Amino acid sequence: NREIHLAARPQGWPTADNFRLVETEVPTPGPGQIVVRNRYVSVDPYMRGRMNDVRSYVPPFALDAPLDGGAVGEVVASEAEGLQPGDTVLHGLGWREYALLDARAARKVDPDLAPVSAYLSVLGMTGLTAYAGLLDVAGMKAGETVFVSAAAGAVGSLVGQIAKLRGAAHVVGSAGSAAKVERLRALGFDAAFDYHDGPVRDSLKAAAPDGVDVYFDNVGGDHLEAAISAMKVHGRAAICGMIAQYNDTEPPAAPRNLALVIGKRLTLRGFLVGDHGHLRDEFVREMAGWLRDGRVSYDETVVDGIENAPEAFLGLLRGENLGKMLVRV
Ligand code: NDP
């Protein structure tokens, strides 16, 4: 078994030196436990926060111990009722080839219903984040104008498509390259721009001249500032992530226009997908239908080999992914 440990806590941008590849014995299960051969493991932006030694909504990763995170794989040994070798399960012990865990911490999934990687992307936590954030947290209604940042990423690309399917009148996305902007147009976004091409405020004004009702924030900083300026009276923002500042060592310089929240009577509402589990069944039913009918597309960027998981994570922070960044192990 090979697994990735946190070798040192990053200061600012992480590097390969913060990680270590470690070889261990393949574990054997005790009573109530299973061993899973992971097939895909997830790398996610929130993991950067867990590399810092600070108290947050999830505890920090320990030094010199394996990292963890979403994973899907096959049960290869079981001492638990209800799970047999050959079953496919979703669980929380990624960043390794073989995982030993209590059967209660694994959820059986159907490998015939969707490619197993989809349980980490479009049908998993990523998809639910987009669905819950847009519809529940921001309360998007038909006829509204929606802006989403990191729009070619895993969450953002689904936000834009769900918005269109639920009747948004105008959907705008921002992303970090011309190729990503082209992909957004193909996915049905009404307008898209590369945020390197000029101030976000100017690009957003051109893309949504009549203003924005709902902003789905994945980026923070200049994107949030631009959205506050562009939002209409009673606009709502679902504050999902602020990836622009995850590697910062100084407090952010923007938004500088926060006082507009008062006059415009805006709602900026942070959320965690973990609080929206009650929507999971409804979400899976609706998303599975959209996928079956070809009305939602999802991109995955797959890096091979557990030894390359750190590079996949660093690539995610640099924007090298289209859709969900995954490691195939
Ligand atoms: P993505 O697939 O969107 O990958 C991250 C993307 O962020 C990169 O591809 C990159 O694309 C973009 N990015 C990186 N740095 C910057 C920057 N400085 N400015 C603008 N864009 C940048 O990841 P996810 O879909 O998994 O996550 C998206 C956001 O949602 C993150 O902020 C994450 O923390 C948050 N999140 C929150 C959850 C919650 O419960 N609140 C749950 C899941 C995710 P580009 O080339 O366009 O720059």
TrEMBL record:
Matching SMART domains, A to Z? PKS_ER
Q: What are the coiled-coil residue ranges?
A: none
- Which positions fall inside the Enoyl reductase (ER) domain? 15-327
Q: Name one Pfam family in it.
A: ADH_zinc_N
Q: Which InterPro entries match?
A: ADH-like_C, ADH_N_2, ER, GroES-like_sf, MDR_fam, NAD(P)-bd_dom_sf
- PANTHER family reported for this sequence: PROSTAGLANDIN REDUCTASE, PROSTAGLANDIN REDUCTASE 1
Listed name of the protein = NADP-dependent oxidoreductase
